[in-house]
Design brief:
Length: 353
């Protein structure tokens, strides 16, 4: 871009890309990015940006660079804040967008464009490339399901897996929506449409949290679902309460010891505001809210009702459809690599249309 030596200019691009690749790997494995990394990263990025700006200060290149930096901050940073406020993205994804908006405002000087990008701002190109890679991933899901013969409405968003493998996976169980006639019949009979499967089902992090909380395993719930459905999760027999991450070292995330049972507790768990609490779901959500403030109303978006529906499904079916999702930092890393190589997927789509 400016008078920066080629080696330094390359490092200002390659260092953030390496960080994104590492974050993509971590996000793929545990679906979490440690909060502690962000303050140092933002501090270093502001230093990099300041160096880049002062390098061209007082030259004809200063104003174009300033415009690119502002466009990057307003567009990508603004989109990140909007996605965070509206709940479209999680906290780490929002911080990632804010970070690349100040870290990757301009293309490295060695970039050779396949064709001129629609917007000459690197971070915006990275973001658009990431979005289109996500769309391509959905196409891959459809193709894989078609090859496997899993023809279902859910094939556009998920894959069918054995229920026993759920505790070693990330994603959210998805249920097949009812047909129009089923909806009409349910309404006419006075049934609750939401209980019939129109909304998303259980998040697998929530499932792992629940199993740990009840000090049990998915196998035990499937063997004796009636006991877990009707029995109270009393404080002295509940287990570890974690955030539901996958234990990749062990290869699974269930508590394999026999669940503690207490005779005489085969009654529904009473909870304020409702007569009974099947599966102890409301008590579970309340406990999660006491430990994590941001879970005060739901656990990873799961209400007590959706937790119950998910538990009913995993306790009674052999397979389940899961929307695995592709971690956002994996997409950002891919988008950054493509953009640095001069590939603008959005521009390709625009020209194809």
């Amino acid at each position: 871009m400016g008078s920066l030596p080629l080696a330094i200019d390359a490092l200002l691009y390659l260092i953030p890309v390496v960080v994104l690749v590492v974050f993509g790997y971590i996000d793929w494995r545990i679906r979490r990015i440690p909060n502690a990394v962000w303050k140092p990263l933002f501090a270093v990025s502001f230093a990099f940006l300041s160096y880049r700006v002062f390098d061209v200060y007082g030259t004809p290149m200063f104003e174009p660079l300033l415009i690119q930096v502002l466009v990057s901050a307003v567009s990508v940073g603004g989109l990140g804040l909007f996605a965070g406020v509206t709940g479209l993205f999680g906290g780490a994804d929002v911080k990632g967008l804010l970070w690349i908006s100040i870290t990757l405002p301009v293309y490295p000087s060695f970039t050779s464009f396949v064709y001129e990008p629609v917007v000459g701002v690197l971070s915006f190109s990275v973001f658009l490339n990431a979005l289109l890679l996500g769309v391509a991933y959905q196409g891959v899901l459809i193709a894989v399901n078609a090859v496997r013969g899993d023809w279902d409405l859910r094939m556009v968003a998920g894959v069918r897996v054995p229920v026993g493998s759920l505790t070693a996976m990330h994603g959210r169980i998805i249920r097949k929506p009812m047909g129009v006639s089923d909806v009409i019949n349910t309404v006419q009979s006075g049934g609750d449409i939401t209980d019939a499967g129109l909304d998303p089902c259980l998040d697998l992090d929530t499932l792992r949290m629940y199993l740990r909380w009840r000090a049990t395993s998915l196998t035990e719930i499937r063997v004796d679902s009636s006991w877990f459905r009707s029995s109270a999760p009393v404080p002295w027999i509940t287990g570890e309460f974690s955030d539901g991450r996958v234990d990749r070292v062990a290869g699974f995330d269930e508590v394999t010891e026999s669940s503690p049972r207490v005779d005489g507790l085969g009654v529904a768990w009473a909870f304020p505001g409702e007569e009974v609490d099947p599966w102890g779901a409301s008590a579970f959500v309340q406990t999660a809210g006491e430990k994590y403030v941001w879970m005060s109303e739901s656990v990873y978006g799961d209400s007590p009702a959706s937790i119950r529906r998910g538990l009913e499904m995993v306790s009674s079916q052999r397979t389940a459809w899961v929307s695995p999702g592709l971690p956002f930092f994996v997409l950002l890393a891919g988008g950054a690599i493509l953009s640095g190589l001069g590939v603008d997927l959005f521009g390709f789509v625009v020209r194809a249309i």
